[in-house]
């Protein structure tokens, strides 16, 4: 079936990509600014996340209660998230009302203000959010692990209690003026909606905005090899991380194939050895995260504190074995699982719109799922092994633990 994908770039640089889906009743739009926590200077840690919150406080003509009521009246819902390299605002709802919802949401994004009293209140809310993450050892450990592996590019998106408290309203407004600009915004929409209608809504609210994005800078990558965070908990959280290929590397399909074998599912080597054979853990897995300039592969396990050293030793042993051999049967299973994941996600609205925007950011054009599947099918055992040995370098390993036991 021919996919109905279209792209328009407004004169001020705002990019709009849509896929019309006449066979679906729902619709999703993502509005992604190319600014995230990884771009923040040390003194402004947390500003991108604070700004994401403040957008929902409304405009001079429409307060946050009116905004929420209008979105609900249309049967739509909104959300937002801040990452290391981007901030994304999302709206979903019925295809028949999504344009009206997008109109309201875009008006908010183009005209939001930062009332002083709401700013102080929201900083208190975010401090409570930080405490929530801090009280979750696995979430806290993951933040520490990424920060240790990749340096300040991957500092906790939420910031720290000190950095949040020190942020001023003026700093947030200046950050917004510098980076929430049309040329730094990509909008994707998937649903039974005409492309021209989407363009009209975006042009209405952003078309006359001439501002351009200030220079974006990423901090140099750095690494902490070993870190332990003392925590009075029943379980030890164990993270073992490695630098991995950047998302633009053409051999990423080979890396995905290999790492699905190693830590991707209940049949993976890590799960079979540490849980099924040894009974050392309840959960263990590995996951890839990638950006245009760097990638990471992070292994996670949760275990009894007394078993921490043994779990770490077994992870290292499995890595050593994996560097020596991958069987053809494992490769076949991994490809089948990844192919299945691609096919199933291609039917999900949220994944479809995310792929539209990701492809635009990374490649400047849409890449059909068929190409992803063909690249996957072409992977050989030799290619997979080569990447395993490139990434699993003992000298470049980061180890982070959170719990009552400090490993040897």
Automatic annotation (TrEMBL):
GO molecular function, one term: metalloendopeptidase activity
Peptidase M16 C-terminal domain ranges (all copies): 166-338
Family: Belongs to the peptidase M16 family.
Gene3D superfamilies membership: Metalloenzyme, LuxS/M16 peptidase-like
Residues covered by the Peptidase M16 N-terminal domain: 16-137
SUPFAM superfamilies assigned to the protein according to its UniProt record, in alphabetical order: LuxS/MPP-like metallohydrolase
InterPro entries per the UniProt record, alphabetical: Metalloenz_LuxS/M16 (IPR011249), MPP/UQCRC_Complex (IPR050361), Pept_M16_N (IPR011765), Pept_M16_Zn_BS (IPR001431), Peptidase_M16_C (IPR007863)
Domain of life (superkingdom): Bacteria
Biological process according to GO: proteolysis
Record protein name field: Putative Zn-dependent peptidase
């Amino acid at each position: 079936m021919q996919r109905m994908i279209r792209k328009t770039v407004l004169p001020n640089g705002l990019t709009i990509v849509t896929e019309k889906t006449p066979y679906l009743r729902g619709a999703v739009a993502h509005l992604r600014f190319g600014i995230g926590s990884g771009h923040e200077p040390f003194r402004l840690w947390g500003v991108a996340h604070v700004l994401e919150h403040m957008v929902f406080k409304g405009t001079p003509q429409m307060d946050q209660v009116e905004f929420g009521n209008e979105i609900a009246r249309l049967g739509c819902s909104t959300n937002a998230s801040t990452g290391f390299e981007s901030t994304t605002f999302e709206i979903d709802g019925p295809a028949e009302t999504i344009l009206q919802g997008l109109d309201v949401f875009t008006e908010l994004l183009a005209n939001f203000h930062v009332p002083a009293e709401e700013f102080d209140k929201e900083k208190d809310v975010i401090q409570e959010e930080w405490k929530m993450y801090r009280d979750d050892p696995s979430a806290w450990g993951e933040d520490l692990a990424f920060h240790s592996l990749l340096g300040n590019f991957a500092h906790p998106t939420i910031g720290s209690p000190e950095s949040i408290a020190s942020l001023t309203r003026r700093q947030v407004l200046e950050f917004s003026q510098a980076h929430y600009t049309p040329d730094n915004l990509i909008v994707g929409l998937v649903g039974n909606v005409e492309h021209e209608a989407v363009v009209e809504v975006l042009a209405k609210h952003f078309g006359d905005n001439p501002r351009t994005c200030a220079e974006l800078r990423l901090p140099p990558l750095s690494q902490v090899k070993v870190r332990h965070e003392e925590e009075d908990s029943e379980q030890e959280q164990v993270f073992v991380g490695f630098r991995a290929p950047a998302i633009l590397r053409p051999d990423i399909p080979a890396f995905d194939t290999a790492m699905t074998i190693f830590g991707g599912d209940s049949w993976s080597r890590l799960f079979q050895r540490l849980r099924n054979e040894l009974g050392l853990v309840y959960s263990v897995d590995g996951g890839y995260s990638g950006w245009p300039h760097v990638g990471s592969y992070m292994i996670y396990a949760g275990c009894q504190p007394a078993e921490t050293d043994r779990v770490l030793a077994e992870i290292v042993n499995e890595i050593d074995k994996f560097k020596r051999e991958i069987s053809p049967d494992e490769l076949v299973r991994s490809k089948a699982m990844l192919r299945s994941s691609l096919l199933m996600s291609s039917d999900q609205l949220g994944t479809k719109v995310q792929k539209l925007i990701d492809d635009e950011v990374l490649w400047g054009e849409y890449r059909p799922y068929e190409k992803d599947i063909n690249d996957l099918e072409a992977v050989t055992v030799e290619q997979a092994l080569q990447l395993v040995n490139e990434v699993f370098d003992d000298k470049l390993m980061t180890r982070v633990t959170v719990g009552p036991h400090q490993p040897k």
